Hints:
Largest sheet: 9 strands, mixed
Distance between the termini: 30 Å
Mean pLDDT: 94
Radius of gyration: 21 Å
Amino acid sequence: MGGIGIVGGGIVGLSCALAMLDRGRDVTLFERAADYNAASWGNAGHIAVEQVAPLASPAALRSAPSRLFGIGGALALPPSMIGRWLPFVLRLAGASTPGRFAAGTTALTPLLAGAMPAWRDLAAAIGMPDLLREDGHIVIWDTPATARRGRERWSRTAIGTARIIDAEPGMLQRLGTLTEHVGGAIRFTGSGQIADLRRLAITLEAAVVARGGRIVRQDVRLIETAGRIAVAGHDIDQVLVAAGVRSRALLEPLGYRVPMIAERGYHVRARADRWPADLPPVVFEDRSMIVSRYADCVQAASFVELGDPDAPPDPRKWERLEHHIRTLGLPIAGPYDRWMGARPTLPDYLPAIGRSARHANLIYAFGHQHLGLTLAPVTAQLVAALMLGQTPSIPLDPFDLHRFGNTGRHP
């Protein structure tokens, strides 16, 4: 047979490719370009095991008006993209009931419990254990009042395998003048960080090739033939769609409902000369901003902008990030490299992981929203079980595309 074809060369696709190669399968990975500016490699680098509560929630829905970009928040609903985000927002509202939120938390809890062990296994398998840092992260608030509210909210929030302790004063003091602006801080343990996203991308690609996998740099088209899905022009037995935000365009022509949106995030990067090398990621919760140190740069990231993945970026987002850096007195100095990328987000904020009920040789793994980096290795383990005809380690029903009406023949 023709082996496995994986469409998508981001962190999820590469992790799945390695998992199948290590199980003795023949793998061809399709990625249209070596794009190290994709969302997989431009994110905050945070292994967010604490985020077991879906962002589709009654609380998030209630707070949305106060989080709009126009009044200083991080949620952007561009009027020019209303045709994209309005149907998504309506579905999001429907997914944010107490019952569906509770079910989503139940589904994500075991998935995220496996995230850090799977990352340890992957880092060891590619010979780069130093890429994984398990130093937790810090959450900071601007004022004592917001710190009290923030601490109280986190005390009521499910956080999976993570734990919360007080942030050590010495850790904050390493940020210099920032301590003058801190109203309160906590530290999460059990979470982690990837130390260098670019090195991770290059190492994963090299590991795929070293194990005999093929990386084909081209766009692909999926076609239906004799009740199966094929990659046009290639001899492929099983097909895995792991193309992030591009997965929708691949599957909808085949009759699948994929109500996914591009949830665009922004970051700025600068030289890391003055940022402490051993400091874990720092979340400035009042500003919805996370700052991460990588090997040779420091990055500030924020924003949830719902819309078109290919629309031009909004420079005001970068300007606000740079403003936060200045007003907080962070030890970061320009010039800044500016980036925008699209998270693949489904309206219930759960990923799509499973096997098609209509095409037995089609498997999918996309829609991981803010958790793509976190969940990539554990997703690969689940995908490998599906492809080998084994029972996955956790139930996948909550992540099946049938929840959006993909049952029977063409909808």
